[in-house]
Amino acid sequence: DTxxxxxxxxxxxxxxxxxxxxxxxxxxxNRLYWYRQTLGQGPEFLTYFQNEAQLEKSRLLSDxxxxxxxxxxxxxxxxxxxxxGDSAMYLCASSLGGNTNEKLFFGSGTQLSVL
Amino acid sequence: xxQVKQNSxxxxxxxxxxxxxxxxxTNSMFDYFLWYKKYPAExxxxxxxxxxxxxxxxxxxxxxxLNKSAKHLSLHIVPSQPGDSAVYFCAATRYxxxxxxxxxxxxxxxxx
Lengths: 115, 112
Known about the structure:
The structure holds two protein chains of two kinds. By secondary structure, chain A is an all-beta fold. Chain A contains no helices and eleven strands.
């Protein structure tokens, strides 16, 4: 395992459909983060996990969004009833944890397009 | 409320010269700052960081300077190389929080 893996790389869906993304962090990393990036903007924090516990959620994360990390390893991010405004790059990152300033290792992202 | 600002969306520099990327922040509680580099179709990769107890950190061709009174940091790349062409994001965080606040990025192009 050489890095953070995200699947799929691209997703095109119709408005109103549900989508699910998967993230596999670096194996020894305890912390897993989800960020969203839109065109011309930097990544925006969505949520993060310490092992299987979801410790913080951004106000950006509406009720249509849910994230899980059931066994403290991989994570899924689901968006229900997608809207065109959900179109973005969804980035997953992981870190060792412990030191809150630990640098994050990002995956290549999932590019979501909602038609 | 943009707490971390990168006011220059793009920068073009000749190979071998110095590249200077700037970043301003508004939240005086930030105490740790990072620079990430992003190539197209890839996630951001960590480049260099600096704690608020320092005013300079150097790693090879990359140096980050922090001016706390001005709430300003800069990334210097010298000498610049064509492979440095990428989007550079400044990020900030506070001790005991676990999320990074990113700027909007600066696209650096290094031409021969």
